[in-house]
UniProtKB/TrEMBL annotation:
<dbReference type="GO" id="GO:0003700">
    <property type="term" value="F:DNA-binding transcription factor activity"/>
</dbReference>
<protein>
    <submittedName>
        <fullName>Fic family protein</fullName>
    </submittedName>
</protein>
<dbReference type="InterPro" id="IPR036388">
    <property type="entry name" value="WH-like_DNA-bd_sf"/>
</dbReference>
<feature type="domain" description="Fido">
    <location>
        <begin position="175"/>
        <end position="327"/>
    </location>
</feature>
<keyword id="KW-0805">Transcription regulation</keyword>
<dbReference type="InterPro" id="IPR040198">
    <property type="entry name" value="Fido_containing"/>
</dbReference>
<dbReference type="InterPro" id="IPR036597">
    <property type="entry name" value="Fido-like_dom_sf"/>
</dbReference>
<dbReference type="Pfam" id="PF02661">
    <property type="entry name" value="Fic"/>
</dbReference>
<dbReference type="InterPro" id="IPR003812">
    <property type="entry name" value="Fido"/>
</dbReference>
<dbReference type="InterPro" id="IPR036390">
    <property type="entry name" value="WH_DNA-bd_sf"/>
</dbReference>
<dbReference type="InterPro" id="IPR001034">
    <property type="entry name" value="DeoR_HTH"/>
</dbReference>
<dbReference type="Pfam" id="PF08220">
    <property type="entry name" value="HTH_DeoR"/>
</dbReference>
<keyword id="KW-0804">Transcription</keyword>
Length: 428
């Protein structure tokens, strides 16, 4: 598709638009579609009580009343804080405590596994957004079994996963040019056509963002200004704003800017989402350890890229990008809530079934996961990765389940693995 367009209009059009504003139906349409924050490309396809251009002119006029502005070098951005945003931000703030916090605490050892699983999901989806042609099942199996990547696409996913884990370690550091370059190296290692592009800003203006038909959607700023842009980017990320900006809003702005500046020859999208993840954790949004926002983005079709395009085509109006990403964050939080409810139910059922056994909650969960795929072997190394426990702990768990008759231990070469042995006859 071509880059979405917004119409130009004359003084005569402006005068006619305000004449139309005398009609209550017109004003109702203006306010209704501004609440939805429709782009011109969406608005012009609606049934409207007046010429779409006049409705658009009025919508833009009312939007301009409360706009906030941000300037980065030559990039001028603006945005509106919609009522919808306040609701979603309140939901996010509230979710870091209360029911989700207590729900996660009730999961005990399941929390560690949940974090690892979420990191895997985030790494896989973020890579798929950038074109990694690997199914979720194969990618997850590679990460769980610690199998070496077989190709560039699998390597992208492994890099993303290791980067996400490392961001948990460095989340309290300030953002610097050097840290951005380090994140880029971790994400792109052994995946670029030219290895010299790793950990290096682009030194050319040949980069363009195209659609599938070869139409140019975005031309990044001059490479000679990248250093200056990145300095301002870091200052914005680390500094306190003269006017308060909610951390989630600021994090999404950083996400957009990294994609817009496009400082690298490749890996910009993955780097942008990693920096957003870092920023939210740095600002004590611990819930993001459990969230796979990129999975929501990846499942939304082309809406993510369209949000970028709507912003760029409408004079740098970030509201479109903010609206989309806040929706994705909200959906990711709702996934966590559903997960907690399901796990609490499963844990209660599992404890009831195995209450006569002297199993830990983690051992029960391991057994349940093996029962879901009874034909697939499980190794000690896989348990250490999935559950984030020491090798000795994983070995003890599997041997305990083997001793009770739920698993059978086998050996293939130097690898010792376990398979499901059905329900223990003593418990049947």
């Amino acid at each position: 598709m071509l880059l979405p367009q917004t119409p130009e209009f004359s003084q005569e059009d402006l005068k006619s638009a305000w004449e139309c504003a005398k009609d209550p139906e017109v004003l109702n349409a203006v306010f209704r579609y501004n609440r939805k924050y429709l782009h011109w490309e969406e608005l012009r396809r609606r049934e409207l009580p007046a010429d779409p251009l006049y409705i658009w002119i009025l919508m833009k006029a009312f939007r301009s009343k409360d706009e906030k502005f941000l300037k980065f070098n030559e990039i001028l951005l603006k945005y509106n804080l919609l009522d919808d945003f306040s609701e979603k931000l309140h939901f996010l703030d509230k979710s870091a405590a209360g029911s989700i916090s207590s729900g996660l605490e009730s999961m005990n050892l399941e929390k560690d596994r949940f974090i690892i699983n979420s990191l895997m999901e985030e790494a896989i989806a973020s890579s798929q957004i950038e074109g990694a042609a690997v199914t979720r099942r194969i990618a997850k199996e590679m990460l769980q079994k610690r199998r070496k990547p077989r190709n560039k696409d699998e390597r992208m996913i492994l890099n993303n996963y290791l980067t996400m884990k490392d961001i948990l370690r460095i989340k309290n550091r300030d953002l610097t040019k050097e840290l951005i370059l380090t994140i880029h190296r971790m994400i792109t290692e052994k995946t670029l056509e030219n290895p010299a592009d790793e950990e290096c800003f682009r030194d050319n203006n040949e980069i363009r963002i195209y659609d599938h038909r070869g139409n140019v959607l975005h031309t990044p700023p001059d490479y000679k200004k990248i250093d200056q842009y990145i300095d301002e980017f870091c200052e914005f990320a680390n500094g306190k704003d003269e006017e308060f900006i909610h951390p989630a809003i600021k994090g999404i702005i950083l996400h957009f800017l990294m994609g817009y500046i496009h400082p690298f020859n490749d890996g910009n999208g993955r780097c942008a989402r990693s920096i957003f993840y870092w920023f939210m954790l740095k600002n004590d949004y611990w819930l993001f350890e459990y969230m796979a926002v990129s999975r929501v983005i990846n499942n939304s079709g082309g809406k993510y890229k369209l949000a970028y395009q709507y912003t760029e085509s409408d004079d740098g109006d970030l509201t479109y990008f903010l609206k989309y990403n806040l929706g994705a964050i909200t959906a990711a939080v709702e996934e966590i809530i559903k997960y907690i409810e399901r796990k609490q139910k499963e844990n209660t059922e599992a404890i009831d079934i195995l209450k006569e056994e002297d199993f830990s909650l983690r051992q029960i969960e391991i057994l349940k996961s093996v029962m879901k795929k009874p034909q697939e072997p499980v190794t000690i190394k896989e348990i250490t990765e999935v559950w984030n426990v020491a090798y000795a702990t994983a070995r003890k768990d599997l041997l305990t389940l083997e001793k009770k008759g739920y698993l059978i231990g086998k050996k293939s070469g130097k690898t010792y693995y376990f398979i499901f042995n059905g329900i223990n006859k003593n418990q049947a």
